[in-house]
Predict the 3D structure of the following.
Amino acid sequence: MVENRPWLSLLTHLVLIVGVVVVVFPVYLAFIASTHGSGDFMRGLVPLLPGPHMLENYGRMLTQGISTAGAPPVSIMLMNSTIIAIVIAVGKIAISLLSAYAIVFFKFPFRLLAFWTIFITLMLPVEVRIIPTFAVVANLGLLNSYVGLTLPLIASATATFLFRQFFLTVPDELMEAARVDGAGPMKFFRDILLPLSRTNIAALFVILFIYGWVQYLWPLLVTTDSRYYTVVMGIKRLAATADSEPLWNLVMASVILAMLPPVLVVIFMQRLFVKGLVDTEK
Amino acid sequence: MATIDLIDLKKNYGNVPAVKGVNLKVADGELIVLVGPSGCGKSTLLRMVAGLETVTSGRIEIGGKDVVRAEPAERDIAMVFQNYALYPHMSVRGNLEYGLKNRGTPRGEIDRRVQDAADILEIGPLLDRKPRQLSGGQRQRVAMGRAIVREPAAFLFDEPLSNLDAKLRVQMRVEIRRLQRRLKTTSLYVTHDQLEAMTLADRLVVMNGGLVEQIGTPTEVYDRPATLFVAGFIGSPPMNLIPAASLSAGENAGTLRLGAETDIVGLRPDQLYIARPEGDVLTLAGTVELLEPVGGESHLHVQIKGTEQPIILTVQGRPKLAEGDTITVYARPEDIHPFNQQTGRRTDAN
């Protein structure tokens, strides 16, 4: 649609700019705050230009953390978050691919029941079943461990459902051709189905990585040892200090650091991500 | 190189029989076409031979070996699918190689066979392309290439040309024929297109309702259809089937000798004449209902007294006839195909 109405374009641009400002300004403020000294934010007038303490603040958070707040260095928490987000994303994709493969391509008794059982777990995310899940994890002695942090989050159906829908669009003849060509079930899965799901896997990886990254409630419950803290829950601890003002400059430095990995994942996988959501290579 | 024997082969889906007992002996190097309307069981039959459908009862022997329990890959067959079923993420070369790699064929051998197949099908320049970069006809060639490189005992074709446009279909039909003649590989070919069936087949198997109606060479099937179904199915326009009573009435009685059990007679549209031919004739009086010019010839629909359906005859050129004209149609007694309505079979069978 080609239109030439200057007022309309002005208005639309204005709306867009306002939207961008609303989203970006807090992030900008966080970045500015992370470059100032400790007292600068308490003086009433909030600075809007970068200050001189950037390297110092970031260096301190990455290596030492704030011991009074009971938080380890951000580098440890970043590492934990990265491990957990990757394990959750990879684990979820792996079990979803396999279960969707079984449900779509094989005939076995109670196949439909199996599908619906998996599907029903969609209605029961971790937050809803958090008490029983915590009890199970605690009884298994998995508190303060990577297994305890990731396993309950891996076991859910979202991705199974998505892969099932994708597999249903793969023509049966493809599997039959592979059978005639001498490919067994796992070979067909590895040689044909997996490469075809590549873009879907990439899209899901981005979504699930961020899902794992932003987990707050569950890590808060199952970790008491600061070695297993994740960055998202760690920030909360940094901000909630007992007898003093929070060190906002340092908190904001951690916030910026916590934001970086998801942004990087999105940027680097964007091409595949969009492709996976928009079209399939058929 | 192998024979294929089907012995009393049956397939039920639940309680619904799809194939009701088929016996067929395919000689080495023969191209057999299974033809019939949709739902007649021809595809099911082919898929059973391929090993993609389980067999309810009966036996399948390929090269004298019972393969009913064998996996598709163990049957030494190659199949060409209707939608080609090329692996979309692999190059053409990858598609051709895949089956050979799975069998552990040595690298040099794979390269040689792929090159040979590419030469035969003239797809050499396409080897590094992906299937989606190919046209329909090219995909069809690649699908055939995938079958050829395996050098199997038998080719199975499942309506391989039905996704192509009419012109390409004719061209590929000729190529398949030439290729099969050259490789002399035993082939089973499924189609619902009778023209494809007639031109390709060494022998035709006409199927209907899960049963074989007739097996024979295309000319045999055309010249002596064994059943009413075959008579109506093979030939375009189809054979005219007229109640025998309407023929033997009146002046025609003398020239016609039909058995007592004959109550329907068939007449090919191209064996009916508007000009009186030599020798004994049979005449039918009627009125022209429709004249369809189809290029070099015309289809004349004539309503005969005492029948419900008009009969169709093919006439050379464009006869000067108008709708509503009364004409006499001639047929030769030896061109008559006598049938029995009850059994659906030919009554002069030897």
User: Anything to note?
Assistant: Residues 143 and 222 of chain A are 5 Å apart (CA to CA).
